[in-house]
Amino acid sequence: DCFVFCYPNAGLPNAMGGYDQKGPEMAEEIRPFCEENLVNAIGGCCGSTPEHIAAVAAMASAYPPRPLHSVEPLMRISGLEPLNYQPNAADMRSTFLNLGERCNVAG
Questions:
Q1: Residues 13, 19, 25, 30: is their CA dihedral positive or negative?
Q2: What string of H, E and C letters represents the secondary structure of 1-61?
Q3: Contact at 8 Å (CB) between 65 and 73?
């Protein structure tokens, strides 16, 4: 019932805060998402370089895109619980939503 985007890190951070996973390794980690037709778009987050994105794009090009379906235009946020945010246009103050990312020991 919604679009699914995947933008993983290039592995786990090393002791210096860098990322050691290479592009082809990252692409192989993501392959099951494509094989099961689970995602609409794939990208990269922390540690991703143009090499990573090129490897992921080359791998993903062998799979058909996930079918698009009708989705109500709401902001959908995932966390411990899903949140489907629908503002009240007549009273935006009552539906104000403030989001933040929780800090953790890994950064």
A1: positive
A2: CCCCEECCCCCCECCCCCECCCHHHHHHHHHHHHHCCCCCEECCCCCCCHHHHHHHHHHHC
A3: no
Among 7, 72, 65, 15, residue whose Cα is nearest residue 40: 65
Give the DSSP letter of residue 84.
E
What is the tens place of the pLDDT at every residue in 67-96? 887 878 888 887 778 888 888 889 888 888
For the chain, the farthest-separated pair of C-alpha atoms sits apart, in whole angstroms, at: 50
pTM of the entire structure?
0.66
Q: What is the pLDDT of residues 13-30, one digit of tens each?
A: 999 989 999 999 999 999
Decide if pLDDT at 104 tops 60: no
SS3 of residue 95 by DSSP: helix
The continuous run of DSSP H or E covering 75 comes out as strand 75-77
